[in-house]
């Protein structure tokens, strides 16, 4: 099984991703590290602990960043994920407690103890991963893979969801994203280019409710609010499987097509949070991409197979 530390801001699709990783026997969830994003760090951490208790799960929880590295926080996305991050589901006071270490310290400890074994899957703002790179650079080369849900590269016509050019996770901390993309570890980016191809309909969620046990009912409960948000945009009750897609990639990489090239993020101004991959080999006189390692961006996906695999697993 692939050993995973999931860095997340639960978050409705984050909660769906957690249900999927718990159900997938080929993936072993070692720990969840939490970050601000869809909700405050207090709420995302509480939600992670609540899920751990509710499903009697054995993963660790380590609490991470409350705010981005440099920029002024955008604040919780209440219209998408509800008041406390899980739509209309309110987390009971958790019995489990978080680790003593902060998120990046927890990641550094586990990566060092298991060299070459751990895949980091990040589905929230990239602040914790950037802090890991800055504070424990020796851990970077010991990570097996980094799989990120974030960014948008303009493939299939998909650009942004918080601005015409920016995706929420990268827009929440563009400076952190730049640090993560510039680091010398193998990154696979699952952006809106492919997650906007993976829409599930209301009927799909109802089928999970009826046939996927307690996890399916939980997905149904949290996603009602999310379906309501997306109804305005999609003109029908449906939602995207953003965060689950990153974990599906770890289990079934053959369902995605990747493109190689270094990535730079726009840090400030109207286009802040825009992600740009350089795909040509030409060297320009002023080339910010030239200093960076080549990373992988998903440019197409077999969405039907992803949807089938996700529901089969659950
Ligand atoms: C990403 O932003 C958050 O709203 C979701 O949880 C997902 O990680 C999609 O842009
Ligand atoms: Ca998320």
> Taking all residues together, what is the mean pLDDT?
97
Give the ordered list of helices and strands: EHEHEHHEHHEHHEHEHHEHEEEEH
Q: What's the end-to-end separation, in Å? A: 17 Å
In the sheet with the most strands, the strands line up as 3-2-1-4-5-6-12-9
Major sheet summary line: 8 strands, mixed
- Class from helix and strand fractions: alpha/beta
- Count of DSSP-assigned helices: 13
- Specify the overall morphology: globular
Q: How many β-strand runs?
A: 12
Low-confidence stretches: none
Ligands, ions, cofactors: beta-D-ribofuranose, calcium ion
Percent of residues in helices: 25-40%
Q: Report Rg.
A: 18 Å
In terms of DSSP E residues, the strand content is 15-25%
Task: Describe the protein's architecture and organization.
This protein is of the alpha/beta class and 314 residues long. Helix content is 40%, strand content 18%. The chain is built from 13 helices and twelve strands. It has helices spanning 12-23, 41-54, 78-81, 103-113, 127-135, 137-140, 168-172, 174-182, 192-195, 202-211, 213-234, 242-251, 303-313, and strands at residues 2-8, 27-34, 60-63, 118-122, 145-149, 187-190, 199-201, 238-240, 256-261, 263-265, 275-277, 295-301. The strands form three sheets. The chain has an eight-stranded mixed beta sheet with strand order 3-2-1-4-5-6-12-9, with helices on both faces. Helix 1 (12-23) links the parallel strand 1 (2-8) and strand 2 (27-34). Helix 1 packs antiparallel against helix 11 (213-234), helix 4 (103-113) crosses helix 5 (127-135) and helix 5 (127-135) packs across helix 8 (174-182). The chain is globular, with a radius of gyration of 18 Å. The two termini are 17 Å apart. 52% of the residues are buried. The model has no long low-confidence stretch (mean pLDDT 97). The site of calcium ion has 9 residues, from loops. InterPro entries: Inosine/uridine_hydrolase_dom, IUNH, Ribo_hydro-like. GO terms for molecular function: purine nucleosidase activity. It comes from Veronia nyctiphanis. This is Nucleoside hydrolase. Pfam families: IU_nuc_hydro.
């Amino acid at each position: 099984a692939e050993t995973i530390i999931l860095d997340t801001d639960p978050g409705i699709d984050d909660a769906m991703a957690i249900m999927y990783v718990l159900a997938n026997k080929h993936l072993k969830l070692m720990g969840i590290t939490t970050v601000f994003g869809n909700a405050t760090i207090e709420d995302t951490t509480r939600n992670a602990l609540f899920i751990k208790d509710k499903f009697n799960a054995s993963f660790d929880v380590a609490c991470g960043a409350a705010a981005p590295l440099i920029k002024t926080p955008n604040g919780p996305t209440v219209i998408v994920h509800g008041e406390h991050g899980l739509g209309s589901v309110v987390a009971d006071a958790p019995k489990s407690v978080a680790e003593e270490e902060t998120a990046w310290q927890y990641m550094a400890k586990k990566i060092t103890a298991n060299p070459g074994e751990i895949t980091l899957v990040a589905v929230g703002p990239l602040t914790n991963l950037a802090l890991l790179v800055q504070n424990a650079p020796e851990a970077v080369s010991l990570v097996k893979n980094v799989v990120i849900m974030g960014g948008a590269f303009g493939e299939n016509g998909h650009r942004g969801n918080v601005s015409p050019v920016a995706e929420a996770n990268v827009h929440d901390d563009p400076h952190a994203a730049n640090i993560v993309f510039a680091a010398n570890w193998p990154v696979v980016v699952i952006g809106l280019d492919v997650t906007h191809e993976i829409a599930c309909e209301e009927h799909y969620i109802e089928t999970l409710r009826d046939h996927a046990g307690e996890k399916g009912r939980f997905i149904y409960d949290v996603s009602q609010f999310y379906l309501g948000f997306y109804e305005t945009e999609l003109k029908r009750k449906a939602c995207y499987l953003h965060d689950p897609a990153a974990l599906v990639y770890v289990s079934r990489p053959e369902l995605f097509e990747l493109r190689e090239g270094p990535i730079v993020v726009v840090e400030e101004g109207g286009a802040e949070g825009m992600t740009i991959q350089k795909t040509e080999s030409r060297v320009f006189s002023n080339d910010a991409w030239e200093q960076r390692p080549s990373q992988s961006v998903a440019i197409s996906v077999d969405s039907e197979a992803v949807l089938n695999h996700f529901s089969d697993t659950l």
